[in-house]
Every structure is written in structure tokens, then in C-alpha cells.
Amino acid sequence: MPMTPFTGPWYVLLLLCAGAGLAFHLTFVRRPLPLRTRALAALAILNVLFSVTFHVAYLTDESVRFPFWQNLPLHLCTITSWLLPVAVLADRRPLRVLMFFPGVIAGALALASAGPLYWGHPVWDPKTFFWVAHALNAVIGCLIASLGLYRPTYRDAVLALPYTVALAGCVLPVTLLLRATVEPGANYFFVFDPEGAGILELLHTMIPVPILYEVPLLPVVLPVFLLQVAVFRALSRIRPAGSPAGSGSPSTSPHGSSEAPGRS
């Protein structure tokens, strides 16, 4: 069975990943914070292995074009995969903001808008870990919040925009250096070419200027980030039967420090 977006295997994979995330949450949400953190870090490390696996599978398959210098761990989704273990273990709020907002959205969008290069491989082919790694980027980013390691705020949703721009700015000099030396096709963060990504293609049609065409994306994604906070707050009000109000996970203050349960 080939893995292609919006086909039976693709839907099954999404349901399995979402179900695994829910089961993980229900299993650990009432456990002590150190255990929650270690368990989630282990899952995040496993996801790094999934990411490495599909990259190696593509790089070693001579039948597909997967240039090494175009696929360094500098794409937003790959950066997310590698930083998730750090975000789980290190109480650094900007890092968790990046994982919860652009990290989750990028992972989810990749599942629906990945290019034809990633389509049609058999379900058990190691290349299929592309889909698993991106799905888990979204799942683990959500678990950071649902398990109480991070409490997103509307202020965080707004700050996620300059944080993402700063991250892209750090990668841009590497992209320019690669394009000037070993790989003219280097295109991290899609700054030169939308490469088939739906909304980026639309923006590139209206503003056919590298880098600048992505600027209108910022006001487009802000409502999505704000919606993430609203959904989190709505779900956080749903308590398991028999669970007293205020019990459960410690929250995280807007400045990244841990607080006692029930404080905000």
C-alpha cells in the first residue's frame, strides 16, 4: 500500500499518531512532573530517530533526487524535530513557544502539502517515516502544553511571529552561502521558491520577490496561533471525572519559571 496524502493509509497513519498522542497524554497527565518530562523527552528523541531514518533512506536511494545540501537539518520541520527534546528538558519559554506554535502548524501542514517526492512509497518503506516524524512534531508540540510543561498565552502567540522570523534569519546566511558555493538550489524556509506549498505559491504569484513574498504570511498565521491558545484554554477546562479542580500539572509562568498548581 503506497503512502499518499488523502488516501486510506494516510488517514490511518494520522489516526494512529493522534490516538497515540491521546493515549500518551492520558497515561502520563497525572504522573509526577519529572516522570512526565522524561517520558516526553524519550518520545521526542524517538522522533529524532524517525527523522534521521527517512533522511538516510532518501539520501541512499539513487532512484530519487534528494540533494544532500538541500536537505540539511535547516528546514523548519527538521529543526523542530531536533529541538523538541531540548524544549522538553530545558525550561526555556521562547523555545517552547516555537515548538507549540510554528512547530505544530508546520508539522500539520507538511502532512497535507508535502511534494510528490514523498508520495507513493510503500507503507513499510523507511521513507514513510517522513510522515511519522511530521505528525509527531505536531503531537509532541501539543503534549508539551497538555502535560503541563508549558502554558501558552495570547502574548506567546504574538511573540511566536518574531521568534520565527529570528529563527529564519539565523538560517538565511547559511542558505545564501550554500547557494553561492555548493548548492544553487538551497531553499531553506522556502525563501526563494515556494516549491508547491499552496499558500506560498499564491503569495509568490502576487509578490514574485524572494524573501519578501513570505512577509504577508505573518498576519495570515497569527489568527491560527491565537486559535491554538483558545483551543488549549477550552480543553484545559475539561477535567477527568473525579479530578478535583486545580489538580494536575504545574503551570509555567510567562517568563518560563515553574509555578505551583493553581497559580497563573
From TrEMBL:
It comes from Myceligenerans crystallogenes. The chain crosses the membrane at residues 6-28, 40-60, 72-90, 97-119, 131-150, 157-178, 211-232. Residues 241-264 are annotated as: Disordered. Keywords: Membrane, Transmembrane, Transmembrane helix. Residues 241-258 have a biased composition (Low complexity). This is Integral membrane protein (Intg_mem_TP0381).
